[in-house]
Design brief:
- The chain is an all-alpha fold and about 150 residues long.
- It folds into two domains: about 1-70, no CATH class; about 75-149.
- About 85% of the residues lie in helices and about 0% in strands.
- α2 (about 15-40) runs antiparallel to α3 (about 45-70) and α4 packs antiparallel against α5.
- The longest helix has about 30 residues, at about 80-110.
- The chain is globular, with a radius of gyration of 17 Å.
Length: about 150
């Protein structure tokens, strides 16, 4: 099992790279949530807590993506320049994610859904927005943040 993980971890294939990227994204989301609730429990304003938790999870995501996901691509770029590119790409991906989330909710409201489907729409909207954001972030991370140029 360990050899299989090591092969997956070192594979430069697009599939393995995408799966590593998605795993890092999941871990970043969990860290985001933990930090958010911890800071709110300590009495910080919700918005300030969210900005800190999101920034923290993006820095963690950058580090893991640089050294785990895209280790086979990243070469000779100043750390600061790479971090700024990462925040730019993932910031735009977040706007896309939230925009698609809000659009999905709005469209669902136009259909006057009832019952379980109405209750599930926020979750479905999160998934649709999340998949769009994940795809956007992966493509542009690979092309802009962790490229060979």
């Amino acid at each position: 099992m360990l050899k299989l993980f090591q092969k997956f971890q070192k594979s430069p294939s697009d599939t393995a790279t995408f799966l590593r990227f998605a795993g890092v994204g999941l871990m970043g989301s969990l860290i985001d949530i933990v930090i958010l609730y911890l800071l709110m429990e300590l009495g910080l304003n919700t918005l300030i807590s969210r900005l800190i938790s999101l920034s923290s999870s993006m820095l963690l995501g950058y580090s893991l993506n640089r050294y785990f996901t895209f280790h086979h691509i990243e070469v000779n770029r100043a750390l600061w320049a790479s971090v700024m590119r990462h925040f730019g790409v993932h910031g735009l991906g977040s706007f896309l994610n939230i925009g698609i989330f809000l659009t999905t909710i709005s469209l669902a409201n136009n259909f006057n859904l009832e019952g379980a489907l109405k209750e599930l729409m926020p979750l479905i909207a999160v998934w649709v927005g999340g998949i769009a954001g994940l795809s956007f972030n992966f493509f542009f991370s690979k092309k802009i943040v962790f490229d060979n140029k």
